[in-house]
Specification:
Elements lengths: L5 E3 H8 L3 H10 L6 E2 L5 E4 H16 L4 H14 L4 H11 L31 H33 L2
Antiparallel strand pairs: 1-3, 2-3
Length: 161
Amino acid sequence: MGKQLFYRIGEACKQHDIQPYVLRYWETEFPVLSPKKSKAGQRVYSEEELQLIQRIKQLLYEEGYTIAGAKKKLEAELAQGSLPPLAMEESDEADAGVEEVEAADEPAPAKRSAPLPTKATEPTPPPAARLDTEASRQVEKLRTGLQEALVQARDILQLLP
């Protein structure tokens, strides 16, 4: 499937193997997940929002977090400026036009008392790799900002006579 700028709710749900009502519920629980609306009033999701959906699903179904715990974990990750490497790798696949459904997408909630730390188990990348990662984050943030500005400009143009 080729890369698109925006995906309708049905397309987003199909990619992540979830039901639309689940995604609409997540929108109420995770303020960071707030899709724009099309002219027809349909929800449209950006690539960044698809990454967030994947991460939320991973936190809830694979890592066994509650909604409240997943919300805190996601907010902490976003405050640090990045999602874990899994989401980064998926965005790289999406950039190449490859969308794969992994076995990780199957719901298998596991209950545990406390989440395992992710940073403690990951080796610290060399300084050059960190710079590349930081630069790629900045480029991605700029790209996302430009996409949002373009959507807003289109909305304004529709309001003009």
